[in-house]
Design brief:
A 9-stranded mixed beta sheet has the order 1-2-6-5-4-3-7-8-9, with helices on both faces. It contains 15 helices and 12 strands. Strand 8 (251-254), helix 11 and strand 9 form a beta-alpha-beta unit. The radius of gyration is 21 Å and the shape is globular. The chain is of the alpha/beta class and 373 residues long.
């Protein structure tokens, strides 16, 4: 397991090229690093792996020119990039299985580590009482040396950021870091950068779409030690964030609301299921004290190169068996390995090649499904 380390500009650019390449998400990215040791080696070998797995078209690697253009555009607005292995990367997020290999950041480096972090999320169509409570408890958290994290959305998110402005707050945006959404939060965006930070996983200039928000939510919870739901209708994005927090081993907390207000159904249901009831900052601190000390024990990826030699014939057999076994419904990778009945290293190598070919996709929690059935 490689320790957290500094990297140079060229290596950071290779990381950016790899994660911006076709069919490569965070989990596949880390598996490629495990296999090839460096992003440069992964870039060199990925097209051949995809071809061996029967890719229907040539594998597309992000060009150096495109990476340079993105980095230059970010620097022009005062931003920078940080890789998951670097010391400045948010420590709790690094422990998440599908942590973004590269984050775009605008604001203060010091905001990303050093304080306990709590996410606050809730309804965009928030009540006045909900917004007032979010602003007050966020201010109290700041005074207690807790960094407030949210998503810059209307309603509860905006109120939470406003309450924590004086002490610093982190906003995670769904699109590119230069795309302010909603536009009405432009002044808030600038104010956050003064003592806090804006984070983005998406490529510079990319407008947010519906598929970006769940990805953003897993960063909001991943950066934090706990997530506080202030108002949430049933089946809302806030409840998705709560579910992701549970999967990541974070504490889920909720503010009780009126049973007559549909905006409180989600958070009241969380309380029935065992979420920590929060009425003040002391409740938050008590909730965080319940977390195990192992929260930071596992990094997102092991960046050590494998030295084992794998037979191409064995990997080809594994690919065939994987395609016969998988379907569109995700299954656990451990179950897949048992069913294929080949050594785990061979099955995982075959699976990696199928991912690069666009035939299979992993999801957090060690699940995989066929996407070209």
């Amino acid at each position: 397991m490689t320790a957290v380390r500094a990297i140079n500009d060229n290596e950071r650019m290779e990381w950016l090229r790899l994660i911006r390449s076709e069919n490569i998400g965070p989990i596949t990215f880390y598996k490629l690093l495990e296999r090839f040791g460096t992003a440069e080696n992964a870039i060199r070998n990925a097209p051949e792996l995809a071809k061996r797995a029967g890719a229907k078209k040539p594998f597309v690697i992000a060009t150096r020119e495109a990476a340079e253009k993105e980095i230059s555009a970010l620097e022009k607005i005062g931003g920078y990039m940080v890789a998951a292995c670097e010391p400045d990367y948010p420590a709790h997020l690094r422990a998440v299985e599908d942590a973004p290999p590269i984050l775009s950041v605008k604001g203060q480096r010091s905001a990303l580590n050093g304080k306990r972090m709590v996410a606050m999320v809730g309804s965009r169509n928030a009540s006045l009482n909900g917004r007032q409570f979010a602003e007050r408890i966020a201010r109290d958290c700041g005074q207690a040396n807790i960094m407030v994290v949210s998503g810059l959305a209307r309603g509860i998110d905006t109120a939470a950021h406003q309450g924590a402005l004086k002490t610093g707050t982190i906003a995670v945006v769904a699109g590119g870091i230069d795309v302010i959404y909603p536009e009405e939060n432009a002044r808030l965006y600038d104010a956050i950068c003064e003592k806090g930070a804006i984070l983005a996983e998406s490529q510079f200039g990319v407008p947010p779409t519906s598929r970006h928000f769940p990805k953003r939510n897993r960063i909001i919870s991943g950066v934090s030690e706990g997530v506080l739901i202030i108002e949430a209708v049933e089946q809302s994005g806030s409840l998705i964030t709560a579910r992701m927090a549970l999967e990541q081993g974070r504490e889920v907390m909720a503010v009780p609301g009126s049973p007559l207000d549909p905006r409180s159904k989600g958070n009241n249901n969380l309380l029935r299921q065992g979420a920590v009831l929060v009425e003040n900052v002391q409740d938050i601190m008590s909730g965080l004290s319940k977390l195990p000390n192992t929260l930071l024990s596992e990094p997102a990826g092991s960046f050590a190169q494998r030295n084992e030699s794998l037979s191409e014939d064995d990997i080809a057999l594994a690919r065939q068996k994987i395609l016969e076994t998988l379907g569109p419904v995700a299954v656990r990778i451990d179950d897949l390995i048992r069913d294929v009945n080949l050594p785990a290293s061979i099955v995982l190598s075959g699976l990696l090649e199928l991912e690069l070919a666009g035939k299979a996709a992993r999801s957090p929690g060690q699940f995989v499904a066929l996407i070209d059935a």
